[in-house]
Amino acid sequence: MSVLGWIVLSLWVVAFATTLINLLTVPRLRTRSPRRFPRVSAIVPARDEERAIERTVRALLAQTYRDLEIIVVNDRSVDATEAILRAIDGVTVIHGEEPPPGWLGKPWALHQGSRRATGELLLFLDADVIYEAPDAIESAVAHMEERDVPLLALFPHMRMCGFWENAVMPNLAMFAFTVLPLWISNRSRMPLLAVGGGPGNLVRRADYDAAGGHEALFNAVVDDVGLARLLRRSGRRTEVVRASHAISVRMYHGLGEIVRGFTKNAFAVFDYNYAVAAGFFALAIVAHLLPFVLACFGNRLAIATVALIILTRVVIFASLRYRIDNAVFLHPLMMAALCWILLRSVWFTGIRRQLHWRGRTYDAGRTRF
Asked: How confident is the model at residue 322, as a pLDDT?
């Protein structure tokens, strides 16, 4: 166990160093105005979003940006989404059509919105994202202009309520800051290191069209990351910026939504490769869960590893304004939940080839990350 223990401890030393470098080097979105104000088309796909759509749209309407077009694609909603949108002035509502054969619903909705958009810049964002700072879009355009970057991904504040959301949802931030070398990503054009997100992909229309747009992502399960990769494959730059003070999102409400939501894409992240998924599962057990078990029996390497894991989490949680007590106590539970979700995703999307997404069921074998 000593050799394996040293390897695991070394991995966490690297993760801790990566975390510090990422937090220190990934820029924050600063409040400032651009030299010019090209038209921005904010495109929001909405399928059964009655819970959040009004707040999302009204926050966009409150933005200070001078030339902002807001387009909501009502993707065949059967709840009150359409009625809510009808009661709000200043928004272009597209009544979405059913996806053509082979298309997934969200890429198809975004494609329809992009065809209607008239902006020089396109802002793709999910229907549960709140642009809380009125100057968020203005600052994002200024950053894009200053850095001369074709696509800017906006990293939000994750709003979490209740025990299970606070326990499981920090996995996204943990992965982003401990695993991804974001400081290299922002300085390279490697498609594998591309970062995108539903909270906001701000992209130049000309570069979006030249790269193929959402027509090239028609079967992409994680289309927001896919868009950033798409631009990089065409030789263009993308960047990620921390905008947690300006943008927030509550992705899922409760454990059931978390499990269903991540089941959709957990196996897809590994390109439906059983060997890679098995490797990740084994790494999760050995590097994330086993140290906590061994620490209970007094293993010194395991105790040192657990201390480093908790320190890493505390640094991330403090920087992102998450609950510190959860940073200290809930790492094993978070990883156990992710292991279960991965197994569930392998079963549904891999073995049974069923991908359930917003009331639709697709053949997972025809989809990709």
From this structure: 97
> Rounded mean pLDDT of the chain?
97
Q: What is the pTM of this model?
A: 0.95
Residue percentage of the chain with pLDDT more than 70:
100
What is the pLDDT, as a whole number, of residue 1? 56
Distance from C-alpha of 242 to C-alpha of 245, rounded to nearest angstrom = 8
Q: What are the residue ranges in the chain where pLDDT is below 70?
A: 1
| Cβ atoms within 10 Å, residue 46 | 28
Q: Give the residue among 128, 140, 131 at the shortest CA–CA distance from 33.
A: 140
Q: How far apart are CA 201 and CA 224, in angstroms?
A: 7
Give dist(CA 139, CA 136) in Å, integer.
5
- Whether 145 and 239 have beta carbons less than 8 Å apart is answered as no
CA distance 12 to 312: 9
Lookup: tokens for 316 = 């991330």
pLDDT, tens digit (0-9, with 9 covering 90-100), for 113-144: 999 999 999 999 999 999 999 999 999 999 99
Query: For residues 231-268, b (16+ Cβ closer than 10 Å) or e, as one string?
Result: bbeeebbbbbbbbbbbbbbbbbbeeeebbeebbbbbbb
At residue 2, the pLDDT reads 87
Domains in the chain (CATH in brackets) are 2-23+255-352 (no CATH), 29-252 (3.90.550.10)
Q: What Rg do the C-alpha atoms of the chain give, in angstroms?
A: 21
